[in-house]
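Input sequence (412 aa), recorded before submission:
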Amino acid sequence: MPLRIKHIESFFHETDPTTLQYCCLSEDGCSFHFPTQNELEQYPIIVPTTTASHSLHVPPDFFSHILIDEAAQMLECEAIMPLAYTTQDTGVALAGDHLQSTLKVFSMGNRKSADHSLFNRLFQYYQQETHQLASQCRIVFRENYRTTETIILFVLHNFYGTSKILMEDSGIPDHPSQFPLMFCCVSGTPEKNISMTSWLNRDEIVEVIKRIQEFYQDWDCQRGSCDQKQICVVSHGSQVKRLKEELRKKQLEEIVVENSENMPGREFRVVILSTIHTQDSLLSNSATHLEFFNEPRLLNTMMTRAQSQLVVVDDPSVLCAFGHFSEIWKRFIQRTLEQGNTLPSFLKMEDMEPSSLLHLAWQNRLDPGTAAREDLEEEDNYGVATSQASDAILCADDSILEELLAETLPGN
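Predicted structure, token format:
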């Protein structure tokens, strides 16, 4: 049986009951207790965070193997802590996906942040080596155990540059009557909170609650009961707080509402994204929390948290005009239109076409004078001027991904 180590100041009442069965608890069973070495020796598998591993105080040869999960999502200073317990005989494995959310390195662009993880450095080191052991030390997992096929194929095509990777069927059931991707057109009027540091969109909150009630009441769950905890709403700032308050009023207090940074490593039957902003709020100088528009790694992570249903609630003209990956949003909306899973149902793609002026205004908001640059001279399929760099597909010039694709595509 494994031992899960939790920090002694972690919130006991917020820990999942299943996890508590594997934790080291105080004598009264009401708080966490940090284990001694004698207690650690009683368990074959120890599961701490990388930071907590620093406080284990065991000799370097205590562990025969060390596995660092989500290694691509942490900086080197975190990943290196458990390696203090290694010797030449210790087996070490790093697992992760460098195209999902990474911690930010503010001294450089987002795309380069991933190169400052131990995961990337180790992979790149092995790429430079020619001996057989170097190739054997790179293992590609192709079993999709979390997400239904429709969602994973959309993610592979838009974030990894291919939909031809052979993936094992996850066995996750689709919604019995709806396409796994859904788009809900809502504009609304975003407003700032009392502190003027965050935004909320009341119209999006109303729409999100409608969708939750529909899924919770009408979904004929194919794998047992569909409880509230299988539905998650992802947003940020004041929207998260207000959503929790409104759901509590509807006796839906167990619906999970989270900020985007708390989502890695989790999964839910239904994930609903509330992006909040409209063109007015995005063009204001006080616009904050632009992750859904500017951070493709985060969007990749959010979409793959959904097992059976992924719902996006926002103004389509905003998603298609603003940010660094508007083309991905266009393809998402187009896919839902093709399958008749867009609300209102009478919408057409031409109804959602953003004005080219919106895109130019967004570029000038980020960098005055950008509109005059050459990279704004191309037009997309809908006649909207776009930057060549705006659709920042993660796979561009990625040597790690290129090698993984070469190993996993059919015929290779």
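Checked by second reader. Residues 149-386 form a domain with the Rossmann fold fold (CATH 3.40.50.300).
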